[in-house]
Amino acid sequence: MTKKILLTATAFAALAFAGAAAAGDLTTGSNIASEGLIDDGDVVAYVLAKDFALPSAGLTSDGVQFVFDNDTNPIAISSNTDYIVTLTLTGPAKFVGQASTVVTFGGEATSETPILSADGKTLSIYAKTGTVTGTPLLETISASGFNLKVTGQESVSVAYKLQQIAGSQTLDLDSSSAAEVIAFKNALTLYKGTTVSATAALPAFETFQGVSGALTSNNFSSTVAAYNIDLEGTNVPVIADIITGYSATVTGPQVEDMLTSFDGISIEDATAVTAGSATFASETGGAVAFNLVLTPAEDTPISEGSYKVTITPTYATGWTGAASVEKTAVTVGLAGTSFYAPWFGLGGSASNATLRIGNNGSTATGNIVIQLKARNGSTATATSVTFPGVAANSFRSITGAELRQAFGTDASNADLMISIQSDANDKVSAKVRTVQANGNTFESSLDLLTAPVTAASIDALSDDIGAVQTTVDTINANTAP
User: Domains (ranges, CATH) in the chain?
Assistant: First the structure.
């Protein structure tokens, strides 16, 4: 028997116009687990926490609906007409539970026959309209009743195509490009905070400038974004249920002398406490946010340097994050007048230098604190030595041999930081005289450091000096006879 298809001229014109695929878009009403995929007209993916482990069996959604706009070519919906709605996934996902698929065109119900491809990524839904009253337009296409199964932590997108079957012909009515519907993002942000820059105050560096008593660092806080841990609309737990414990080591120039507490834990409860480090631990939570407290010790000058925290969190089952995080909580500089003396000869066969500190003011300066920085030779037994101040209208000379002995090293040269407990920047001078083994003598005036000395400023100066030395070495090599 031959089946005859009778189409009106209007229908033929509409189908002819629809022959070129239009640009369909995912639109309002689209959702996964009742979480909308459209925000202010834009597609927003359902976000899963990437730092939460995917089960070996994958994740299966609890309800999916995709709605597509057909504003480009909204032809009239015909009665008793066969259509094909094809959904195609990209990414580590496939369709499941398709037997209950439902398709509607606008408000018009259909009878559906879903067919799933062998790889589960393409769902072709044969949808037949019933009796259509009036002339409703094919403006929206909704497909629901199936679910998605995700097996990898990568983006998942969906695209659709709408076709009409007319006799032996299949006519393309509309299609869309792939739209991301599932995304994976890291939910954890660990220990975000800012470093406190502190200054040891004049006249004796025994207090922090502008601080009464102890210095408390800023909080370093961990947060978790409100993403999902499954395809059923379950949000991630609070951060305190994710970080369940920690081990943390604090390092700095005077940990034993000044560190009072970390994360509210007293230094008395720390382990492996040395002059420059201490370790804290908790197996019952904490350290979602931390700070540390430095309390100056009586009659003990505060040293320049940085206090760093290296924290190793313990994560709840299923969660992963950085194995450890290092943060600089506090940097300490010294007030007063400071100079930097690079490549200072500490004595030996190569050269010997003398540091001359002049005080042209009418009052004596405070102590002179000299810190040992980059150097050659063996490990030093001390990295900071203190000399008495300079009387008014006088000077003090300190030889490299003296410093070499004070630092307890066999180094022949070193970079020095000289800090004078005085705010008379315009009255204090510093000069270095170097005598080489061959008798050649060189003198240089040291530049005043007007900003407080910090670890960062020292590192920057060291880099600059290194760059200059590299340039000098290159010039010497190119001009050698």
Answer: 9-185 (2.60.40.680), 188-334 (2.60.40), 337-467 (2.60.290.11)
Q: Backbone dihedral region of 175: left (phi > 0), alpha (psi from -120 to 50 degrees) or beta?
A: beta
- The model's pTM is 0.74
Q: Other CB atoms closer than 10 Å to residue 253's CB: what's the count? A: 19
Check residue 8 and report its DSSP letter.
-
Tell how strand 220-224 and strand 289-290 pair up: antiparallel
Task: Decide: 108 and 77 in contact? Cβ < 8 Å.
Answer: yes
Task: Return all residues near 212 (Cβ < 8 A) that are at least 6 apart.
Answer: none
SS3 category, 418? strand
If we measure between CA atoms, which residue out of 292, 112, 297 comes closest to residue 204? 297
Burial per residue of 102-122, b for 16 or more beta-carbon CB atoms within 10 angstroms, e otherwise: bbbbeebebebebebeeeebb
pLDDT tens column, 304-325: 889 999 999 999 999 999 999 9
Angle at 395 between CA 393 and CA 400, to 5 degrees: 170
Cα-Cα-Cα-Cα torsion 440, 445, 449, 455, nearest 10 degrees, comes to: 10
Residues in the chain, total: 481
Number of C-beta neighbours around residue 182 at 10 A: 26
What are the tens digits of pLDDT across the range 376-426?
Answer: 877 788 888 889 989 999 999 999 989 989 999 888 888 998 988 886 666
Q: How far apart are CA 4 and CA 10, in angstroms?
A: 18
Q: Which amino acid is at 454?
A: T
Alpha-carbon gap, residue 352 to 126, rounded angstroms = 93
Nearest to 407 by CA among 399, 472, 126, 131: 399
